[in-house]
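Notebook entry, structure prediction.
Reason for the run: the old model in the group folder had no record of what sequence produced it. Starting over properly, with the input documented here first.
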Amino acid sequence: MKEDFLHHVWQFKKFATQGLTTVQGEPVTIVNGGQYLQLAGPDFFNAQVVIGGQKWAGNVEIHIKSSDWYLHSHERDTNYDNVILHVVWEHDIEVMRRDNSEIPVLELKHHVDPALLVSYNALASSKTWIFCERDLETMDSFVVNNWKERLFFERLERKALPILQLAAATNADWEAVLFCFLAKNFGLNTNGEVFYEVAKSLPFSIVRKESFDAENIEALLFGRAGMLDGDHEDVYAKDLQGRYAYMVHKHRLESVHVNSVEYFRHRPDNFPTIRLSQLGQLYHTSQNLFSKIIEASTLADLYSIFNVQAGSYWQTHYRFDKESPKKRKPLSHSFIDLLIINTVIPFKFAYGRSMGKENGEELVVLMQQIDAEKNAIIDKFKSFKMETQSAYDSQSLLQLKNEYCNHKRCLQCALGLELLKR
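New structure, fully documented this time:
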């Protein structure tokens, strides 16, 4: 048993509340179980209980055993001075406050339906990919759909947070913020942080000015990423070196150190050279990109915005100085979907929130028009007959697996709670 089970039992009063007494023999009536904040300090705040005819207001602390109070050193922590009731599964020792007064203890093991504990143990001890995988197919669709919506917005909130933080740090320079997060997602998992640091190192006023010339914006991006260092053979690479050196002097750019970009385990179309060139071409062809993205209301609008390809040099190269067969290298449909899922939708959500505008519903509609992502987690959910028709579904399920299943938070999950009801 874990404490989260007892938190669940106390929070939802999953125990017989009549005839309760403390281990000291005083009758207990629960007026208000308190607020479950899951923060440092006691488990439930602002509870109200009547003990021995005296009404108390304060906090409730929950443990498996009474002795856990001392195991966690609560007797030395001032945050626990206002605990009015110690709720435990098993009482094994008297517990004292710092002033040596005894804390009333309520032992729960004789007041909880054994069937609930059996259900919890069956859920929490299963050695499977996720504890409830055998039951997913039988879940009530109303419960599943409501939980998916909650999960989707939880994930969206998490993605929007760093966007809002950077906006605050840049005095709401939304064009600059968009540039940084687009760069990060152009770099994918492997080069995302490098691209993000490259973008942050460039004042956006310079990006805006130099993006009118496609070679200049490429020179800035490749130069800041350290990809123009050393000797080069091709005229194009040498030209970019010269342009970059001139712009560093012209704009008085400070030197920047970023990690080396990675080519390993990338398909050639995902090489950092190609992605940086495509990013540069996007800003070369789309002035006022921020406004266009915010105003775009349909998926077709967004696909049109991202309809760009790598520069002409990169049609015959994947790396500097190494020629390859000629091939156009546009942003693929699937890559644009990733940009929309991971940058555009969170960005629209964050910007809407900053403006006091509620746009969640229209973002859900957009996400429901995008194909579900393809990865091992989504494939596994599909094998359990979980609906994954769109990016809205796949984003919800990724949040479920990463933030709940992986951390065994079944008792904070609507699906886990539904199983306990059975």
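Summary: The chain has a mean pLDDT of 95.
The old model has been moved to the deprecated folder.
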